[in-house]
Specification:
The chain has one domain: Cobalamin adenosyltransferase-like (Hypothetical Protein Ta1238, Chain: A, Up-down Bundle). It is about 60% helix and about 5% strand. It contains 5 helices and 2 strands, in the order E-E-H-H-H-H-H. The chain has a two-stranded antiparallel sheet with strand order 1-2. Pfam families: Cob_adeno_trans. This is Corrinoid adenosyltransferase. Its EC number is 2.5.1.17. Homotrimer.
């Protein structure tokens, strides 16, 4: 099977169930942005050290990547249709529980931090900003599952804490906002 189909050569693509839409359709923008965030999470994982804490963090982040893939599938589903796999409250709860767990070992924020630190944390900060964009786009998708919006909102919080957690574990200082 060839990877290229040529069906998108005129600026359209297929949603799930075969409906064709313009490649700049809000659904395509939203699920494509989820894909960008997912790829950036993968980059962050690939830059983790070969240590036990990092292996555990990678497992958690890969679970998040899987759910994010399904979020994209929900966004790629036309109104009135349903995918067999639906986002659940448990998926959001998993993010919240991980945030709470990882945040326990972090220094309280007393000033604004800048995105950065280790290469892995920097990638996770970038994924956070992409997740925020995906959320803004998803708001415009007709009849979107409300859990999609909640998940994307919580995902950006998760990625912020994940970046901080990675920097803390790697003993890399977080860059801070300097007021001149």
């Amino acid at each position: 099977m060839k990877i290229y189909t040529k069906t998108g050569d005129k600026g359209t693509t297929s949603l799930i169930f075969g409906e064709r839409v313009s490649k700049n359709d809000i659904r395509v923008e939203a699920y494509g942005t989820c894909d960008e965030a997912n790829s950036m999470i993968g980059l962050g994982i690939s830059q983790l050290p070969d240590e036990d804490w990092a292996k555990q963090a990678a497992i958690i982040m890969q679970k998040v990547q899987t759910v994010l893939f399904h979020v994209g599938a929900e966004l790629a589903t036309p109104s009135g249709k349903e995918v067999s796999w639906k986002l659940k409250e448990d998926d959001i709860r998993f993010l919240e529980e991980t945030i709470d767990s990882w945040q326990e070992g972090l220094k309280p924020l007393k000033q604004f931090i800048l995105p950065g630190g280790s290469p892995s944390a920097s990638a996770l900060h970038t994924a956070r900003t992409i997740a925020r964009r995906a959320e803004r786009l998803a708001v415009g998708v007709e009849a979107v599952n409300p859990l999609v919006l909640s998940y994307l909102n919580r995902l950006s919080d998760f990625l912020f804490v994940a970046a901080r957690y990675v920097n803390e574990q790697m003993k890399v200082n977080e860059p801070v906002l300097h007021e001149d």
